[in-house]
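One thing: mind reviewing this one?
=====
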Amino acid sequence: MSDEAKKSSKVSPKLSLGVINPNDKVAQLREAFEKDGVRNVPDVGPSIVNPPGGDEAARREKIIDALREVYDPEIPVNIYDLGLIYTIDIDADHNVEVRMTLTAPACPVADKIVADVASRVRGVEGVKSAKVNLVFDPPWTKERMSEAALLELGLL
């Protein structure tokens, strides 16, 4: 390869491809925690719309496990422990409705995350269908993060 070809094949450091470094997002969260003086945050978790019993409790746990496999690409913590899941509702016919949010309304991968949530929930044994409602009220706050997420991000 000629020197000219090598120069033209290099990516300019000024070129931005819209990729966010996960370490930058983690640093922003740490800075926000230090600014707010938050040290002990309760494990909030999503609310339970219909209290589970028997098989439903096991199915709910499998759904939660599936949600823990979905990650916001900007933060190295799963969406469940980030507190992005507000409710998980399972009706009598085993249709699941998930109400969730994002850390920011302008998330560039919102569609991918929502599609991944629906796909993972549909993949749980016994789930007939999955619907995901993306909401921004109430807005997500770092207080919704689980203790595991806080430890993972070095915020405790």
